[in-house]
Write a structure and sequence with these properties.
With about 425 residues, this protein is of the alpha+beta class. The chain contains 14 helices and 23 strands. It has two domains: about 240 residues, BirA Bifunctional Protein, domain 2; about 90 residues, Rossmann fold (3-Layer(aba) Sandwich). It binds adenosine-5'-triphosphate. Adenosine-5'-triphosphate (ATP) binds next to β10, β13, β16 and α10.
Length: about 425
């Protein structure tokens, strides 16, 4: 019986052992809620970002952008982040554990008793999640700048620049991938909630009145993107924000949620932000951000439909969803297009004549597919190592290869094996990917 991932600890240890994800600054004891992507992790991450980028910018109606992380401090007044990007924080006076008051059960909060040790809880304090730093040599209030807590604002302040330079007409969108920083009170669950992370955000500018139609379209498009990444449909669902959950700027909001071992949690948010953002930036900057429609000769502030996905969170979903264990064998059943390596080529034994042939096959496949090779240990062990990093296909060169020029192709998920002529391998894998 094949099992899914039950304990996050199993995934954390696989990720470290095989070079997907390491704890940041590990030799110094680590730094909380920061993680480093190793050789395989970065390949997986690049594949996810590439798929997202292509899905967005291959469309005629979306342009790309890469805005700076540091922005004018007024941006964060206009966006509402200085006043409103706060979480209520309570501390346990005894065990020093911190909790987000909005995530504690009402009875626990009312009892003022720590859910961990029973100690006394402090009153909730408002805590701003933005990281602050200073620009220039003097550490004074006037020099405070923030590390952006979301990439979206870089898009809003460039709305006119992109519109005017590309001559895109509404409806159109701007897509961006970039780092964001939040001084989270309760980070955790591996890379699920970290203090430094990457977002993949797209802001779609539409005519007021057409916003709900576009909102519905983007909901469908984004759900399909996750499904096309190979994520199992029964592990994905929409969660609609009720009146109490809606952010101050939103008219409608749906989360795409995934069923993690620790429960259903947000993976991506799709929001109808109305004209809130452009309206606020227009007010705070004093610059007109209206759009002029040539056809209808109208001036108006566009409405914005946002799709906001976490890159690290998508990567975590990809790993969790791909994890399989059958009591003996562990493998990552990645969608082939996301797998860090597509093919692994092995000599059956470490013998010069087999190694020479292996190298020829390896050199030729690697021109088109990310390919690896491995000649240490038994062939069974080498297959297992590739299974654990999710390589979809293995190619083995044996003594028959030397005479009849066929190789064994082994499939990761079924472990089925078939003989394929060496000269057809290129075409064979082109058909698979
Ligand atoms: P929460 O209320 O759970 O803190 P949020 O609703 O504020 O999160 P958004 O602002 O909508 O989150 O962020 C959009 C996306 O960015 C999320 O769906 C998630 O994928 C990602 N994201 C947000 N915060 C983090 C974080 N601390 N670590 C990793 N990814 C994050």
């Amino acid at each position: 019986m094949t099992q899914d991932l039950k304990e996050m600890a199993d995934l954390v240890s696989l990720c470290k052992r095989r070079g997907f994800i390491f704890q940041s600054s590990e030799i110094y004891g680590g730094i909380n809620a920061c993680w480093d992507y190793g050789p395989l992790g970065i390949e997986l991450k690049r594949n996810i970002k590439e798929r997202w980028w292509r899905a967005m910018t291959d469309r005629e109606d979306i342009e790309g952008l890469d805005a700076a992380i540091l922005m004018h401090p007024k941006v964060w007044e206009a966006s509402g982040h200085i006043a409103g990007f706060v979480d209520p924080l309570v501390d346990c006076k005894k065990c020093k554990e911190r909790f987000r008051a909005d995530k504690l059960e009402a009875e626990v909060l009312a009892s003022k008793k720590c859910p961990k040790c029973g100690g006394e809880l402090t009153e909730p304090r408002q805590f701003n999640l933005m990281f602050k730093t200073f620009m220039g040599p003097v550490e004074e209030d006037a020099a405070i700048v923030y590390l952006r807590p979301e990439t979206a604002q870089g898009i809003y302040v460039n709305f006119l620049n992109v519109h005017q330079s590309t001559r895109q007409k509404i409806p159109f969108g701007i897509a961006q991938i970039g780092k964001a920083f939040r001084n989270e009170i309760t980070p955790g669950n591996f890379i699920f909630r970290t203090r430094e992370f990457e977002q993949m955000e797209m802001q779609f500018f539409v005519k007021p009145g057409s916003d709900m139609e576009w909102f519905e379209k983007w909901k469908e498009v984004r759900m399909k993107w996750h499904e096309d990444n190979g994520i199992r449909k029964n592990k994905l669902r929409f969660h609609e924000h009720g009146a109490g959950e809606l952010a101050h700027y939103a008219k409608a909001a749906f989360d795409i949620e995934y069923e993690f071992p620790f429960g259903w949690q947000e993976l991506e948010g799709i929001h109808n932000r109305t004209d809130f953002d452009l309206g606020r930036h227009q007010q705070f900057s004093g610059k007109k951000l209206e759009y002029f429609s040539e056809e209808s000769k109208e001036h108006y502030l566009p409405y914005i439909v946002e799709t906001s996905a976490g890159c690290d969170r998508s990567l975590l979903v990809t790993l969790v969803d791909a994890y399989r264990f059958d009591g003996e064998r562990t493998w990552l059943a990645f969608h082939p297009s996301l797998a860090p390596y597509k093919v692994a080529v092995f000599p059956l034994m470490k013998k010069p004549e087999l190694s020479e042939y292996t190298d020829k096959v390896y050199q030729s496949l690697k021109k088109r597919f990310r390919t690896t090779t491995d000649s240490t240990g038994s062939i069974g062990k080498r297959y297992r190592r590739q299974d654990e990093i999710g390589t979809p296909f293995g190619v083995t060169i044996d003594y028959d290869t030397l005479t009849n020029h066929t190789v064994t192709v082994r499939h990761r998920d079924s472990m089925a094996q078939e003989r394929v002529p060496a000269e057809n391998l290129d075409q064979y894998f082109q058909d698979k990917f």
